[in-house]
Amino acid sequence: MAINFFNEDIDIKLKDKAKLKTWIKDTVEEEGFKLKDVSFILCSDEYLLTINQQYLNHNTYTDIVTFDNSEKEDQIIGDIFISVERTRENAKKFNVSSDTELHRVMIHGILHLCGYYDKKPEDKALMTEKENFYLAKRAF
């Protein structure tokens, strides 16, 4: 089992990495999956825009792009790209701390890897409910 954090074209220091990894692992297990290998790549808006354009043909800024690399249905393997600039901006907009918004987006990516979607209103509502549920379980 591996959870890795990388910075790409930004400088950010994550707090409580060990607790963050435990929280992510516990979330995956509670959803009924085995965590094999997840990489979080923290980056700028521009870096993520390039990823969005190159791989998804979307020409829009976003806070997250998730790639599911799992080969077995019960295992989680993926790469989660997160724009730190976007999460900081959204934290101000939603009046929450930058860490809380970053954690929400991280768990959002994990939930995508667990099979949750957010395109339709009812899917988005369930996703938000799950995000709130797991955010409340953070012990840090």
From TrEMBL:
InterPro entries (alphabetical): MetalPrtase_cat_dom_sf_prd, YbeY
MF term (GO), any: metalloendopeptidase activity
Alphabetic keyword roster: Cytoplasm, Endonuclease, Hydrolase, Metal-binding, Nuclease, Ribosome biogenesis, rRNA processing, Zinc
Main localization (coarse): cytoplasm
Top class in the EC scheme: hydrolase
EC number: 3.1.-.-
Cross-referenced Pfam families: YbeY
Subcellular location: Cytoplasm
GO cellular component, one term: cytoplasm
Keyword Transcription part of the UniProt annotation: no
GO aspect biological process, one term: rRNA processing
List of residues binding Zn(2+): 108, 112, 118
Cofactor: Zn(2+)
Textual note on the cofactor: Binds 1 zinc ion.
NCBIfam families registered for this protein in UniProt: rRNA maturation RNase YbeY (TIGR00043)
Functional note: Single strand-specific metallo-endoribonuclease involved in late-stage 70S ribosome quality control and in maturation of the 3' terminus of the 16S rRNA.
Family indicated by similarity: Belongs to the endoribonuclease YbeY family.
Name of the featured protein: Endoribonuclease YbeY
Species for this entry: Solitalea agri
Gene: ybeY
